[in-house]
Fold these 3 entries.
Entry 1:
Amino acid sequence: MSKRYEQVASYIGDQILSGLLKADERVLSVRQCANELGVSISTVIRGYELLQDRLLIESRPQSGFYVRAQLDLPQAPETSAPEQRPVKVSMGKLAVQILQNSRDRKRIQLAAALPKIDVPAVAQLNRIMAQVAREQSRANQMVDMDNLADYDSPPGNENLRCKIAQRLINAGVSVHPDEIVITSGCQEALVLSLNAVTNPGDTVAVESPNYYGMLQAIETLGLKALEIPTDAETGISLSALSLALREWPVTACVLATNYSNPLGSCIPDARKKKLAKMLEAAGVALIEDDINAELSYDHQRPKAIKSYDKVGNVLLCSSLSKTLSPGLRIGWVVAGKWLERVQHLKLCNSGANTTITMVAAARYLETGTFERHLRQVRQHYKQQRDYFLQLISQHFPSDIRITNPQGGFILWLRLPEGVDSMDLYYRAMTENIAIAPGNLFSVTQQYTNFIRLNYGQESPQNLEKAAILLGRLMRELMAENKI
């Protein structure tokens, strides 16, 4: 539960960010705010200090607190323009290096797309996990827990599948629990889905830029990737995809429909409906990565493309890794007409998840506190985004371009002319800052002047330190290259 001073900050901050309070406009006095919200003066002062830290208000001597003039944010990157031909994927070792570096807590971690985990919900989940483990050892328990430490068989724990089916209603998807297969995270769900609908040598259409884990999966299965132009706000280009379907023998299409990684794009509902019809008509399976959808800053969770699927052509993949805890390794796939094939592949490849984690996840979802947790982390990520964008406007060179995502916790940034992302990556490492270079997010490694940044994990103090240092490093590289 958020502290009272954080509620004060949210109350005033939301008025500023929504435009109700304008730049240079005086905010409520400390006493007025205390009376209006029914809190102490010291609570309001702490809330106003937090707003100052977030660069939303400023104190003027003998006058009070005023809305701080917000800096103009750089524009978003242009729609990508990848080379549109099927390419054999070879990702190299950089992705492994990024993940290894993400475990080093001596560094400011802006590289890996991992969520904030020092939250009450994760502590509650850990307590439930410990409770389930203790129950396993009790012979006189009332519930049959004999095989808690064992592996369940696909499709996985029934109670957990029921809870997931209930949550999918918010995505516009109505499925029976038996249509869901529990997986070890979303990555396994994506790999199983790809394996189910393709054969080695087939061509898969993907967004560009694209999550490197997806590209690694395509490489592992011996598939070719066809990169499609993608907009930072509205997602994949429908016209470019339509042309690609006519020119190339595409077997499947993989899309992160809501707050994609790394762009943060969210496909509008009308375009989702067109996509579902287009791919169905072309006989192309659609694998939908919906892992970030519940991290929408809006009150309404976006629909999944699966909600427009009438024939089982969409395989919907997601997990609790971004919304709750990546260590839980609970994912799922609604496999449509490939359900039996996915179940068989799951059984052959890894069996089911351990029963203890599935039971714990189901019990946590039963507590009814997940929605409150989501509200808290959405607010946290939104505040972190606003703060980090302001820091970037202050400290980075002016000719960058950057996304302004409406959900999730990552930014995609085009570097100044002549600044190579790998050069910046290695120099940032010497300053104990981890970033993700753009080379990772394309099969042709074309995003050499882009980086991805995670603003969700680190403290405001570390975000400020990173922004200052990264800005300095960019300017050093620009000077060396005489830009």
Note: Residues 158 and 177 are 7 Å apart (CA to CA).
Entry 2:
Amino acid sequence: MLIARRVFQDAPNHQLSTLVKYTNINSDGQFHRALYDAEMTAKLWLVMLDNINQRCMI
């Protein structure tokens, strides 16, 4: 969450479901299931890494 707060400062909040919607990750909305939350977290992590790479490449 700390990284998400830095990368997505304009997000309305930093809950997993909000960040998934904010980054346009495809989701069927079954949050609070362990496997689903883990999958969405992994997808969000990849989006954050891509965002960081784009910011750092000059």
Note: The chain has one domain: 2-56.
Entry 3:
Amino acid sequence: MADTKAQEMARMAIEALEDKKAVNIKVIDIGEVSVLADYFIIAGGTNRNQIQALADSVQEKLGRAGYLTKQVEGYNTANWVLLDFGDVIVHIFDDQNRLLYDLERIWRDGREIDPAQL
């Protein structure tokens, strides 16, 4: 089970995504199957501007709480933005790339959890 810091970070990221109307938010607890992070959060956006707004919202909310992004990938093209906060990694996809990369399938050894349960 992930630590409370990771849970807090994940909760804040989900709130930030929900504030900007992200679609199909999934949370996968990968703490038992990977050393990469405790949680993967996967969310969708409908267009480039929304995907960038989602990424900005997550970075702003976590940043205000003192959790800084270790790495950001894909922000300019905004078809798949990766925000690495260490214990929590947030993936924001457009529809096409979410289907193409299918992280939910790749990380099926992790445990999908209801975002409301964090």
Note: The helical segments are 4-19, 48-64, 95-101, 103-106.
